[in-house]
Amino acid sequence: MGKPPAHKAIITAAVTGAIHTPTMSPYLPITPTQLIDDIMSVYEVGGAVAHLHVRDPETGMPKADQAIFREVAAEVKKRCDIILCMTTGGSIGDTVENRAKVVSTLEPELASLNAGSINFALFHVAPKFEGQWKFDWEKKYLTGTEDFIFPNTFYTIGKFTELMGRYATKPEFEIYDVGMINNLAYLIQSGQVQKPVYLQFVMGILGGIPATVENLVYLVQTARQQIGEFQWSVCAAGRAQFPMTTQALLMGGNARVGLEDNLFIEKGTLAKNSGEQVAKLKRIAGELGVATATPAEARQILGLKGLDKVNF
């Protein structure tokens, strides 16, 4: 595979997610064509990875539809060599079996793997949009999270790692709080997870760790103590997105932006696509003297199996 390049930061964009709803931004990509266009906007400005959820094209409701995953992934692969990181987080209330299906169906290079259970709360956002809803499902979807646990038990995490190992899909471990580092350290020690690992610190979700510089330093230090060497990235919800991703670049890490995490490009201005956010972060990286990785370089850094070994 060749020698990995000297440190270059991998910029990922999470293009739609399962948090924001259509009422919140007219630019949130919903249909397969919109998702493809958003991923291409990321690639064209130098993003190396796109993190993919899919939605019902009619209503915008998050939905792990395998045909849509395949449609988007196959078209993107025809157009460029960006790395696609498939979600196994699914959407609120999705079954573990349905969340995992994309790994066996598409055999991607990279897939998210949530490293613990969390009170994943979105209900507090709903009052801001009262009376504006475009679709009936949106309010219920958000308010229902007041009594919701996003379940990722040791058993199911083990099943996910086993499945990803079968298809040579590298896990991107989503770390929402410090206890999840402990979970992952145990799985490494018990032989269920192989090093080197790739961590995505997800900050600022209600129910998870707050998005502060002190907390990011603590997460990285704790992971070093518990795990040793690893690759890591940071994403943060809402207005914390650019402060935290900039801090990650300063600390030698990687960074994730995109409309899943934040709908704005600056205060009061909605981002028209995820590519706008990638371009902004690349400008920041350039000012800091941080080089950014191409998709080919990101594959080497993360030790991925290659685009010729996926099933799409």
Write the layout of secondary structure elements.
Blueprint lengths: L10 E4 L17 H13 L4 E4 L13 H14 L3 E4 L9 H11 L3 E5 L22 H7 L10 H13 L3 E6 L3 H11 L8 E6 L9 H15 L3 E6 L4 H10 L3 E4 L6 E3 L2 E2 L3 H14 L7 H8 L10
Parallel strand pairs: 1-2, 1-8, 2-3, 3-4, 4-5, 5-6, 6-7, 7-8
Antiparallel strand pairs: 9-10
Helix pairs in contact: 1-2, 1-9, 3-5, 6-7
Give a quick rundown of the structure.
The chain has helices at 32-44, 66-79, 96-106, 137-143, 154-166, 179-189, 213-227, 241-250, 274-287, 295-302, and strands spanning 11-14, 49-52, 83-86, 110-114, 170-175, 198-203, 231-236, 254-257, 264-266, 269-270.
Please describe the structure with a list of short key phrases separated by commas or semicolons.
single chain; 312 residues; alpha/beta; TIM Barrel; two-stranded antiparallel ribbon; 10 helices; 10 strands; 14% strand
How would you characterize the overall build of this protein?
This protein is α/β, with parallel strands linked by helices and 312 residues long. The protein has a single domain, classed as Aldolase class I (TIM Barrel). Helix 1 runs parallel beside helix 2 (66-79), helix 3 (96-106) runs parallel beside helix 5 (154-166) and helix 6 packs parallel to helix 7. 37% of the residues lie in helices and 14% in strands. Strands 1-2-3-4-5-6-7-8 form an 8-stranded parallel β-barrel, surrounded by 7 helices. It has a two-stranded antiparallel sheet with strand order 9-10.
How many domain modules? 1
CATH topology: TIM Barrel
Percentage of helical residues? 25-40%
Over all CA atoms, what is the radius of gyration?
18 Å
The succession of helices and strands, N to C, reads EHEHEHEHHEHEHEHEEEHH
Shape: globular
Q: Strand order of the main beta sheet, please?
A: 1-2-3-4-5-6-7-8
Count the DSSP helices. Answer: 10
**Biggest sheet features:** 8 strands, parallel, barrel
Please identify the structural class as seen in this structure. alpha/beta
Number of strands: 10
CATH architecture: Alpha-Beta Barrel
Strand content: 5-15%
Distance between the termini: 22 Å
* Low-confidence blocks of residues: none
CATH superfamily: Aldolase class I
